[in-house]
Design goal:
This protein is an alpha+beta fold and 150 residues long. It has a single domain, classed as Alpha-Beta Plaits. The chain is built from six helices and four strands; from the N terminus they run ααβαββααβα. Strands 2-3-1-4 form a four-stranded antiparallel sheet. The N and C termini lie far apart (68 Å).
Length: 150
């Protein structure tokens, strides 16, 4: 009886250990370049207020912002930029980019082409980040829920 009392909980633990694993989709894992943990490496950019902001008129900053937004679209279309967005408020941190690139150098090249970075309106800090490969699904989902294109 004592062995049975030990074996039943052991059997339950072992049988439940695999619970949820039947949800694994190898096709999705491959599509989103997931490792065995469902994760992958990205490069994240923290966009910060640049030293030249005050040197531009509102009209000039608006034109730079238009170029910045066009550049974001170009990087997204090339499937290098997974997500981007501004922070609320007027703090030093202005926004983020999340890149699907192999290294910091590739992200540096992409961001150095941004008109706002070239103009000194934005500076950035690049960091490698290990996160869920499911983040790669955001652009596809976003297109389906976006009524107005930015």
């Amino acid at each position: 009886m004592r062995k049975l009392a030990i074996l039943i909980p052991l059997f339950l633990v072992l049988s439940l250990a695999g619970f949820g694993q039947d949800k694994y989709d190898p096709g999705l894992a491959e599509k989103y370049k997931a490792d065995d943990y469902g994760m992958k490496k990205y490069v994240m950019a923290f966009l910060k207020r640049g030293p030249e902001v005050a040197n531009y008129s509102k009209e000039e900053r608006d034109k730079i912002q238009q170029g910045h937004m066009a550049h974001i679209g170009k990087m997204a279309e090339a499937k290098k930029l997974v997500l981007a967005g501004p922070f609320f408020g007027e703090g030093e941190l202005r926004g983020i980019f999340l890149f699907d690139v192999d290294n910091l150098e590739e992200a540096e090249k992409l961001t150095s082409e941004d008109p706002a970075v070239k103009a000194g309106v934005l500076t950035l800090e690049l960091l490698e980040w290990y996160g869920s490969a499911a983040v790669m699904a955001i652009p596809e989902i976003h297109e389906k829920i976006q009524k107005i294109e930015i």
